[in-house]
Every structure is written in structure tokens, then in C-alpha cells.
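Researcher: Re-running this chain for the archive, since the previous output was lost when a drive failed. Same request as before.
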Amino acid sequence: MGVNFQCSGPKGESLTFAPNAYISISSDNQVTLVAHRSEMGTGIRTSLPQIMADELGADWSRIKIIQAEGDEEKYGNQNTDGSFSVRMFYEPMRKAGATARTMLIAAASNKWGVDPKECDTQKGKVFHSGSGKEIPFGDLVESLQNASLPAPESIELREFSSYQLIGKDVPIYDLKDITRGKAVFGADVNLPDMKIAVVLRGPVIGAKVVSFSDGKALAVPGVEQVVKISGPSFPPGLDKALEGVAVIASNTWSAIKGREALEVSWDLGENQNYNSEAQLAEMVKSTSQNGKVRRERGNFAQAKSSAAKVIERTYEAPFYAHATLEPPAAIAHVKSDGSCEVWSPSQHPQWARDAVATALDIDASLVKVNVTLLGGGFGRKSKPDYVVEAALLSKAAQAPVRVQWTREDDLHFDFYHSHSAQRIIASLDSSNALTGWNHHTVFPAIGSTGSKDELHPSDGEMGLGCVDFPFDVPNIRIESHESTGHVRVGWLRSVSNIHHAFAMHCMLDELAEARGLDPIEHALSLLGEDREITFQSEMVGGEYGNYGEPIDAYPWNTGRMKAVIREVAEKSNWKQSMANGKIMGFAAHKSFLTYVACVVSLEKDNSGNLRVEDVYYAVDCGIAVNTDRVRSQFEGGSQFAHSLATTSAITFENGVAQQHNFDTYKIIRMPEAPRNIHVHIMESMEKPTGVGEPPVPPYIPALANAMYQASGKRIYKLPFQI
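Model: Regenerated C-alpha cells:
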């Protein structure tokens, strides 16, 4: 955490006390907190300041929150990916607030001549318990002008029981502005003399411009300039602008009409014959062969050869697009002094800054990235390609430029979630015990977007619901297979957990039936005794990443998983409901260090059509900082997952995405959404973990398992119809 102690203010003006980069208090009693992570609906712009405010003892109703620009020297890691904002910054935010509180108390106790231990803070004031004296924070700012920072070891954090905000429902800070249409998202930024640009990119990733004619485009009223963007061949990388021809205009409509009038000849490159369905068929075929062993326990081949019964199933999932409600947009202003200022709905402003600096061939210190609210992110807006486009076009136009992507652009040139094929083989002995588990997985790796040599999923991708198979089976063999990238692949909400959890938990449900066991009892029994799992000793030639955290600090604890399973069974009334013929499916999955159990309940409407009536989640995310936001993430996550399970898919023919807008890349509408979503948060004093992505993985197999109860047909391919 960057520390920047500062007290400032010219004589006669308001003074400021700023003991660190995140907190400032003015002599007119304004407490300002910095949100250094990107807000995309998760509530992180509220939750992190909420932690500081609680430790500080500030008056939350009078807090001002400002968004940080991209600057790791001040704010540390600002990459709002991976569900780790609260996990990473819970303790630093507490310490930031506690440091300021300690200094305010020291100033007040010195003023009153009392013991600092007799003082505390509340509602923006320091008060003395013995005398009843109190003083607003602002009245202490002048006396703190020459104060020194206290030694870090002297800072005492509050007891959890004393918190007024942490662990409670707190509405998001921007709620009123968002609901009234006053909130500023990427495309809402307007600068004087700003131009609008849209880009005609090659229809196939890696395509290069052979020639173009811009006469008709320039004839469109409002069109001012046509500029070629030089982009990389294939693979294109994660942070570079694709090759294309941009139309710069005075307004969005003219820019779009000008793009339609462009005449461009393309060299489509090596992916012009790519067909995703053909590749998927080859991927399925490859899983019947031996793959690269990534984890091994015991001897699966022996378990299989001696088995009384072997069950073998293949699972398929398509490419997915992020399809954020707000398509990518970015504004850049390359100024006459060579510096560049950016306004963007970016999940990773520091990466955007560095990518812009590289593209413009300037030092990163000359680039300033301002972060707006994001109309959805899901991992797409951590990649800075669209920000780079804006910077390049601003330099060419010698004016501020907003690059605006359309929905068609968004779906055609995304960093997609990979399509995948998986084969799971399970062996049962004569006593019907599960003796072996062999999981084959194949999908174009995220690394293939940067290097043709990346033919297997990384250790990180394998650790998302595959090698971290937690069940107590004596013989385990996990294998990956080669596949090549032909499109841009990136991370999408819960990443490889999407397809791995689908396959794993559908197979476990089928195994429970084969063994004559209730699915929940089956999961509890397979988890075995309460214990902590490390996985590392069984990894073959690789590492278990554990979401970037030390396994001893964040172990895989079977007791915590069993607790959420029992909780969801109770809250959904699982046993009685199933006995009464209720149509229900179950899955439980740990991702991003959070334990989640899910039950999906289906009912038939008056026309005999199935719909999701109830979703039950039990969640152990350690300390839940803002319980309102935790529930909201699971409510939204179930609907996100429902789209992935039932309606969404991207396919490619001749290298071109075949889905163009929400008529062909479908997301669920309100009538299709789950009607009731019940989120039960486990009480916990464990370290906080992520909640943005964990709702997604268990929902899809829980829904698929419920569909089996309704139809008698197992589901092996996504998406499927209800």
C-alpha cells in the first residue's frame, strides 16, 4: 500500500490532512476516500472505502469517494480481475483507516490532556469516554500539520464486533446517480472539440489491409478523416489494437455511416478457413487418446482394468463472448506536449497506461488514465486494445477522440472464453465404491493469444476446477490435450471453472445415481474427513496456483465445503422436496477461494413449460464485508450462468464470428430468468475471499442436473434448452 503523508493548504484556505494515498480530511470536515479499483457493478467502489471508513470512525453519510487514476506507486495493484479486490486489500484498507484514526485520537487527546486509550472515533468525531468531550475531525487538521506517521506496529485495529459498516448491508455509493441516469460511464465523457471514431477491423483475426479507398467515406457529412491502424499478425496478443481502417467524424452516426462506405481489400491470413465446429470435433476426438498428465494419484489404469463398472462421458462447451451491456469505448487526448490523457471504463488502468505508452512510443509517466464506471466488465475490459485505438487515433487527429465499439464489433472481436471438450472416465469396484477418476480436458489456452507455442492450458487454467478435484478417490489422473488458437481468447467471469465445473459436477451426479446415492450425500461422503488439501504433491511437472495465494494461508478445506453443502440442503429443504417429487439439481464448487453450494429448483408453468422457480446458494466467502453486495453478486451471477447454460454461444465459419447482435448471441430475457434467488451467507471470521465469479461455476451443473430429473436425459453439451 502506497503511503503518502501530506498536510496542505495555503494560509486562509481549507487545510488537508492526508496520512496516506487513500484518505484525506479537510479542515471543513470533509472526509474523502479514494477508490482505487474499478467499479463494474460489483460494489467495490463502495466496499473498500467502507472498510476504511469503519476503521476511521467516519460518518458514512458524509463521505466523498473519488476514483483513482492508474498509478501503482500510489495505490498498488489496480487490476480489478480475479475476484481478489477485497481479498487483497481488506487488511491494507483497515490499516489505512486505523492509521488516520490513531493520529486523530493522538491530536485530540493531546489537546484535552487525556490518555489516548480513553478516546475513540465515531460519526466523524473524536470523543473522550470519561468527560464526554468530542471534536470533529476537521477541527484537528491544523494541529496535525507537523505530525509524524505512527509506527506501523503501534496501529491497533478495531475488534470486528465494533464495526458499524463491515459485515452489514451498505447501499452502493453511486446508487442514486446510476438510477437517475447521472452516473458517468465510458461513452458519457465529453471533451471540447472531441471527435468520434469507429474502426473497420479485418473480418478474421490477424487479417491485414492490402488497400483501401476512402472517397465514399469522406463524402459522408460529418466525416473528417480516415486513418489506417497497423496491427499485429496472428497471434495478436492481449494489449494491441487490431489492424483496421478508422473513420473519424464529428458524431457517432456519421462515423458509422462512413465506415459502411469504406472499400477495403484484406489479406485474411492464416485463419480464413477456420471452422470452430470442426475444431471442436477434433478436440473431442483427442480426448480419447493419452494426454499430458497434470496430476496423478495412485494408478488409474489399474483401477480401470480391475473395475466392475466403468462410466465414460464426454462434455462440450462453446465459445462465449462477454457481451457487456456497455460495449467498449475509450477517450484519449494526445496533447501538443506529447503527453496523453485517457478516460476509459477499464478494469486494469495501469495496463492500459503502459499499452498506450508503448503504442505512442512515449514514457508511461506521460500517460494519465482516468477510470469511469464500467457498464459490465467480466474480464473483457481489463484488455486495453480499445484504449490503444483511441490513443493512436487522437494522435492522428490532433484532437481528443472517442473510439466507440458497436455491439457487432463487441461480438466479432472479443477475447472469447474458449470452447472446450472434456472426457471423464470413472471406475467403480464390485462394492460400488468410486475407485478412479480420469479427467481429460482440451481448449485453446489464453496463452495462445500471445504465442503459437501455447498448445496446452496453463497451470493456472488447469487449477480452475480441474486439477483441484477435491474428492477422496484413491486413483486420480488429470490430463490435458493440445489445441491451437485461431481467435482472441481471454478470461471471462470464472474462467475455466465454467466448463470444468459443468463436466465434473454433472459426472458426479451421474455417479451418485449409479451408486444408488442421493447427490448431496454422495458429495459429502466423497469429501471425506475434514481436512486441508494442498494438491501440490500430486502435480506432474507443474504448480497448483491456488488463485495466486499461498496454500497454507488459503487451504482447500473440506470441512468448509461440507458446511455450505449442508446449509444449502437445509435451506432448500432438499430431502423432503426431492421425496415429494420436486425437480431439483445440486452442485458445489470452490472457486476464487470461496466455497459455494447451489440447488436449482424447476417448476412447470400452466403451459407445461419448465422454468427456474428457485435458486438456493450457500456461500462461505470468509468475512463478508458488504452483505448486500455479496447477495447481489450471486443474484446476478446465477442469471449470467443461466445465459451461458441455455442460450449463449459463439461459432466461427471461415474465421468469422457468426453471431452479430443479441438476436443471434442470446442472453436470457426477464421471463427466462430465475424467479427467486436465495443467498445464504455463512457466518465466518476467516479471511475474506472473492464473490464476483464464484456464483457461476456451480449453477450450470446444478441446472443441468435438475433438467435430468425433469426429462430423464443427461446433458453433455452447452448450451441446452429448458
